[in-house]
Amino acid sequence: MQPQLSDFVSNASCMDDYDPNAMSVTQARHYIQQFLSPVSETETIVLKESLGRVLAVPVISGMNVPGYNNSAMDGFAFRHAEAGNPLKVIGTAFAGIPFTSDIPAGCCIKIMTGAVIPPIVDTVMMQEHTSIEGELVTLVKLPAIGTNIRLTGEDIAVGQTVLTLGHRIEPADMGLLASLGIGEIEVYRRLKVAFFSTGDELVSIGKPLQQGQIYDSNRYSLWGLLQAIGVSVTDLGNVADDPATLEKILLEASENYDVVITSGGVSVGEADFMKQLLAKHGQVLFWKINMKPGRPLAYGKIGAAHYFGLPGNPVSAMVTFYQFVQEALKTMMGAANLTPPSFQVECVNAIKKATGRTEFQRGILFKEGETWKVKTTGEQGSGILSSMSRANCFIVLNEQTGALDAGKMVEVQPFHGVC
Length: 419
Ligand code: AMP
Ligand code: MG
What we know:
The protein has 8 helices and 26 strands. By secondary structure, it is of the alpha+beta class. The protein has 4 domains: 5-41 and 189-333, Molybdenum Cofactor Biosythetic Enzyme, Chain A, CATH 3.40.980; 42-64 and 154-188, Molybdopterin biosynthesis moea protein, domain 2, CATH 3.90.105; 70-150, Molybdopterin biosynthesis moeA protein, domain 3; 343-414, Beta Barrel (Beta-clip). β23 and β24 (371-376) form a beta hairpin. The chain is elongated, with a radius of gyration of 30 Å. The site of adenosine monophosphate has 17 residues, from loops.
């Protein structure tokens, strides 16, 4: 049975295995997933608009690809049984211009790559393996019957499912769909995501900084992260730690967007407005995650909108986004493939770490000779945003892992890549 968010909010201590103050990364992901489902509305879009969109219905091929037997080579097409003797070349088949006349016994045709194979021949010999004298061609080395013929439907057969439900469209898929003559597809509508930053110290770029103020960077990293995922993004600005303003913006956002993300204001010891507001208007869980960086995280619902409260710290905000929000958004977008790829490589430097927490250190994957390796970005403080900018991956170190000597294998999770 699907658990209710309200049970966790009101009755947390009765839940097995649920401790909001010591939540593992895996548990937190698992809890969030239980409350998510894909958007229900779909829309039909043209192929050129489809990059990054998620299929709401599988694509079934209405045709064979290739649609006819055709030549894989420039060469000569002939009957295998006759290949022992020199063959007379009586014409040429071009791609797009089939050879339609009869091919009498002892004859063959010249054929170009992609040209239709006349039904009367069964093999193609590449030009380089023949010798030609006048009209006669001799096969230097006899290939097996059927060689160099691409068969009807060998890539895709009629009725075959070519792309499954939840598939995210990549450039190759666009070509594949075009090869099937498909110009429109049905996808989930775009997820609408809004975010704002909280904090009296924050100033938008373009204004001078006063003593004690900082530029609001989270809105820009979040903007980029959300754009990369392919949701519809709305930036609601930065909001001072003022309860009335926060309340107004939060409520408006929850009515107009599928997902509302805030950064800042959810840590312990904050001016506690966000927590009170979220408790008043929504069902929100506040967690301390057993991870570094990015310990506080809030997840819940305000009305129909899903809510994520990220830590204000710029590195922590990005790490929690990558580790929790990205996967959740993909689920709501209807995407079937959620897990970002990770793999093991050698880390060339020693790593400082204590056991007990999962750490997402910033790493740089680089090529040494022929081998990809990783190094850390150095200082791993959670306020050092330049470490995220220099990095191209996380080095994921689980709770059991302690300090590591240089040269050990570590798990890396690239920021971008194959997923
Ligand atoms: P908070 O989570 O609100 O306690 O913020 C933690 C730290 O992150 C503080 O040093 C904040 O000044 C900083 N911070 C919060 N929000 C942002 C933001 N939008 N951009 C840059 N730094 C921020
Ligand atoms: Mg704050």
